[in-house]
Amino acid sequence: MCPPNTPPARAATATADDTEFRTLLDRLSDKATADYYNPFTTFDWPATIPTDELWMSPELLSLHGTELMDELSTAQLQALSRWESVNFYSLNVHGIRELLIEVTRRVHTPGFELPSEFFHHFIGEENDHMWFFATFCLKYAGKIYPDKSVKLPEAPRDPDIENFLVFARILVFEQIVDHYNVQLAADRRLHPTVRHINRLHHQDESRHIAFGCRLVHLLWERLLDRGLDEAARHELRGYLGRYLTTSIESLYNPAAYRDAGLPDGFALRRRLLAHPARQAAHAKVLHKTTGFLNRIGVFDDHR
Amino acid sequence: MDDVTKPVVDWLLERNPTVDEIPEDLDLIENRLIDSLGFMEFVLLLEDLIGRELQLDQIDVDQFRTLRSLTHHFLKG
């Protein structure tokens, strides 16, 4: 998580000789080197993962806390946990593709001189994560759920705003995923392979999140230093709020409901998204992210 | 209003409370009734209405621009 007592970012750019940022980057790079593992030899991939077991903790399923959860048979619960886990890993594959494109586009470009060394660790590790999540989906489910996002033609943003949003989106994505990783890694009801991929992902993401918090804070301070006006702040706040919502909503996939044998997937998704128990669950998943964005002043508490 | 477009129009109006009506040839993307963030939900709605998954790597965004085009490409028959 983002440290609560992060010192205020100086009104400096990521290119300035920011001793504190450099110290963090050195520490995270050293830790990445020390923790390095070869993903292609690390995992024991069993031939199958039994389908009469849980693949995801029931507490993390999109029906949890609703009356619909109680109506599921054991077999339905297992099927839902299997297909929602495949959806979760599929979302990781697609999310990582996007962040790899964006970070690779920025490594060793003006404005990112300081974090570029760490970007190499980041890019390498994200490539590893994408590989093991995709392998899990293809080996045990025979598919990766397709990406439903499309980038529509939109007017280009100011480059500093775009940089801020890119790394804010990456941070949001990583923090949501990490909430799931931590619980899945610790859940003794789950298969060792499931726990292993989630544990390793959490280990790497802890560094990425620490880095992301600092970089997002710096990029935000850079925008403020440039005199970001209230209208632009309002627009950014609205965009990120919707991004948080959309990210959570992607966990409610009608195709996964169909594969689990639950009818009317789109109607079920809408019913669940409006359910008070699910809205409380979303707040729990997002609390670190909203807390951080409130603390640095992107959101205000009355959002 | 055409019955086949009603669920789409309802969805668009629900997400754009300042809009009263949506002419058939209004550019939904240029006028930001749909944007990149809202597009995923919109695709899921369309898939639900037509009863099949859309292959998004093969789509032409222009097919989603107006109610007329959506009707022609997805909702009729």
Question: Could you describe the 3D structure shown?
Answer:
The complex is a heterodimer of chains A (303) and B (77). With 303 residues, chain A is an all-alpha fold. Chain A has eleven helices and no strands. Chain A has one domain: Ribonucleotide Reductase, subunit A. The longest helix of chain A has 34 residues, at 192-225. Chain A starts with 18 loop residues before the first helix and ends in an 8-residue tail after the last helix. Chain B has 77 residues and is mostly helical. Chain B has one domain. Helix content of chain B is 44%, strand content 0%. Chain B is built from three helices and no strands. At the A-B interface, helix 8 and helix 10 of A face helix 2 of B. Chain A: It holds the Pfam family AurF. Chain A: This is Diiron oxygenase. Chain A: InterPro entries: AurF/CmlI (IPR025859), Ferritin-like_SF (IPR009078), RNR-like (IPR012348).
- Tally the structural domains of chain B: 1
Distance between the termini of chain A: 22 Å
Report on the biggest sheet of chain A.
none
Low-confidence stretches of chain A: 5-17
Characterize the quaternary organization of these chains.
heterodimer
Percentage of residues in DSSP E strands of chain A? under 5%
Query: Looking at CATH, which topology of chain A would you report?
Result: Ribonucleotide Reductase, subunit A
Mean pLDDT of chain A: 93
Question: What's the number of domains of chain A?
Answer: 1
Report the uncertain regions of chain B. none
Q: Helical element count of chain A?
A: 11
CATH class division of chain A: Mainly Alpha
H/E element string of chain B? HHH
CATH superfamily of chain A: Ribonucleotide Reductase, subunit A
Biggest sheet character of chain B: none
Query: Structural class from helices and strands of chain B?
Result: mainly alpha
How many strands in all of chain A? 0
Radius of gyration of chain B: 12 Å
Helix content of chain B: 40-55%
Mean pLDDT over the full residue set of chain B: 92
Question: What percent of residues of chain B are in strands?
Answer: under 5%
